[in-house]
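Forwarding the complex inputs:
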Amino acid sequence: MRSKYISKLILLSTIIVISNINVFSQNEDSIKTIEMKEVMVSANKTEKPFVELTVPAKIISKKEIENSGHSRLDEIISEQVGIITVPGFGGSEGVQLQGIDPEYTLILIDGLPVIGRVAGTLDLSRISLASVEKIEIIKGASSSLYGSEALGGVINIITRKVKDEGFKKNVYYQYGSYNTQDILTDISFRKNKFAVFGNINRYSSNGYDLIEGDGQKTVEAFQNITGNLGLYYNMNKLGNLNLNYKLFEEDRDGTVFITSPGIENKSETNENNISLIYQNKLSKSVDLNIDIYKTKYLNKEQQVVPNGIINENNFDQSLSRVDVRLKHSTSSGSYYTIGFGYDNEKLERTNISVKPEHKSQFLYFQYDWKTNNKFNLVSGIRYDSHNKYSSQLSPKVSFKYDFSEDLNLKGSFGYGYKTPDFRQLYLNFSNSTSGYIVLGVSVIDEVITELQNNNELMFYDELFTTNLLAENSNSYNLGLQYYVTPDIPLEINLFRNNIYNLIETNIVGRKTNGQTIYSYSNVNKAFTQGIEIQGSWNPIKILTLDGGYQLLYAKDIEAIESFQSGTVFARDRITKQSFELKSNDYFGLYSRSRHQLNLGVSFIINQIRDNINLRFNYRGKFGLVDTNNNSFLDRYDNFIKGHVLSNISFNKVITKNISFQIFIKNIFNYKDEVNLVNNPGRIYNFKVILNN
Amino acid sequence: MILINIRSMIKKLNLLLLTLLFVSCVDDDPVLEPIEAMIVTNLEAKTTSQPGQPLSGDFVKFSFEKQTVVEGDDWDIAFRATTILVNGGFAAADDEPSRTGIAAGYVAVGAYGSINNVDESLLKQDSETAYAVPTGSGNGWYNYEGPPTHLITPIAGRTLIFKTHNGRYAKMEIQSYYKDAPESPNAFTDEAQVYTFNYTYQPNEGVISFD
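Prediction (whole assembly, two chains):
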């Protein structure tokens, strides 16, 4: 009901903005785009020029986002080198970075964490690209600045800020296949030291069905709203104040529950967060930054029949954070950052009897040392103390060495970790239809004792320890950057992530009624390693080519040992005979492609006013499940074939305030209905943009 | 349940191979009976209980020598859902058939064709606390894949070795737990608790070889 109200509000505000568009459009439309010296905040928690970074990173600019035609974060992120999106429940999309699973990449909006990992993966399709200024991606463990979850890397979505004086607006409407509609109203006003900005984005779709007649849609119809309201006030010597409120609301037909006739499945998500950021230059060399942040994520899944709710699943998480940091610069261009703060995280969830509360304090220090013109060394360390886990000490060291103006070497070592989540600690879930129980390690003793007392326990292999350790990694990156000519940067990066204490579900017991009891333990060690190459080329003024390639090996150490010991066999699907596998038959972890290739072609036409963008994204073969009875992915398994997805967008400027876009996603209509459920086939989109 | 006698198939298809096999047997000991290689398809071993409830229903008893399901005490092994009993040792529950023979068994790691001898030191009988063929995912002959597929898959390279109720030996490989042994089974649509397996039976007492 609230979203209907908001929808009306959007419509109204859109009409107001459109009717005003000619009155306010006074700014000169500049055709020339001046390439500003791009800066990145995520790598150092303070602005640093992109070209000077010591860690592997990538910026997706506002222009790239707008020209691409994409609406949601998962779509544009999957076009980046070395990044793959992996589908989860109900159309959700997680990110795989350097071959590391979605659970282990920290997602931030304006530097502050996004919560709501219902099943571990954070759904990137939740995040709208409307009003995004840029996206910063850091590869490699970064817990030295960000603490838990920054094991594979960090993705930071920077939203649009008010820069120019006066009244600004940006409105667009996009219509596409499956009745997909994306509408944005973005207005801002700045006068001297005061600015206010707000935007609201509504995105809806009828969803799609890849396999008809199975009684459920592949992706159910949904609608969501993303809103943002911000205030900025420059108090001169007293500093700057940013107050920001963001909301996300989504209604979706269909849930995690299996569809049955006569039962309506509904899913509802509400996300709210508020942040207050205070910045002040205390002296010529000292900067103070205070973030105060509170976010709340609520997801409700319901099965509804005419006389009530028959099944319900709730997930209600909140996080409060205070992060205070001081930056002290020296005359040589070096600086150090010292920061401290605390987190408070709470969860209420169906199948969790307790209401867990996690509190942690943290302290971090980073020194960015410019030893001379050629050598920049950045070293940092963070200490996290937690009320439920052992404390963590996360170091990171990175450097950049300039051999010449054209050639430099970058290297980094970082420690990353992820604390066990609430599920792994407190879940007490019983599935009566398929007959299994999953118990978190903090509740297992209690439940097992109860089962024993009731004579319901057949056997129980006591956990080695009920003290789950944080999953962690040591991540290494070494890269060369070479400017073939000033216009042709070429980058090659080698990476290796050693991951320890991966948490897995294991069978720990069985009830007398045959139900299997699962719990969690730290068992696996794995690694991901590979090479990443990327570059771009401007052969002629109107043409830009860019491309990238990633070679990836991602393997489980225990699996390697099993293959070496000669105890792994495979069953031939036709003859049903088993045969022994050799060490080199092991392919690696599920959902990993050995090869990934991206290629982009952009033409500027019509005196730089219009452009055409073509993208080809190749993903090499990968396996989703074991298909020959050995629980490992080996060369005789059924793989999902390597495939290319191609997009084209055409951006045309009509007048200085009006432009439009035609975007065709998956031009060649590549589909795999059984295995690639996140791909509905070819999609057409048309968009009209009004701005000043 | 359908039985296929591989030897008779081979006889029709490849007389030479059979001759070699026969000759090799003759060379060893002229009075030995030939070994029997069989495939059993769609042997139903269903429980009458619903998932999540205590398992119930009769065990299906099988004789390697008779190549079929039997009702009497001359059974060698018995099936119910994923549980396999041997006719030797002691019953662990009241609804199990009582053990009247000297059967035993173990799970060998290795391709079916490469396991040609019985290691008698590994043979175990059923007891009140453990079965000769261990139950549970990953412990014995199968893996339970858990959510979301919930498949029961026979682990590749697990050969079950049995001593029969009257002291002969057999080796066995379970190939499928679903009706008609589909190439890619689906736990939600394919009929489960239906075994397909092949076995080799050594009818000569005291001979531990399957060659």
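Chain A touches chain B through 35 residues (CB under 8 Å).
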